[in-house]
Design goal:
single chain, c-terminal domain of poly(a) binding protein
Length: 114
Amino acid sequence: MRVKRGQSSHKSHIKIRKATKGFSKSNRSSIKRGKQATTRALQFAYRDRRNRKRTFRSVWNARINAAARLNGTTYSRLIAGLKKSNITLDRKVLAEIAVSEPAAFSSIVKSIKK
């Protein structure tokens, strides 16, 4: 008895069409191009989930440096001072304090300068 594959291939085509919503015309309408575009998009998504962490760290460093310079020191001196005085605040928290509570940040800087 011969096996007809219409239903299973139709299912996979629908799956690809769902995944390519919002893509440009040929990537959306063609199954072959859609499959390639989806694979590529998933690769970029995987890569960029890791790169996001790097990007945010550099943003935090820039914010900390800007706030440190307003308080008369530099980023490197601030981080060195934090390590010397055993203050264990990570860069994410420091950046958040620098942006939302400048008075608290300046008190941290003063505690380091002593």
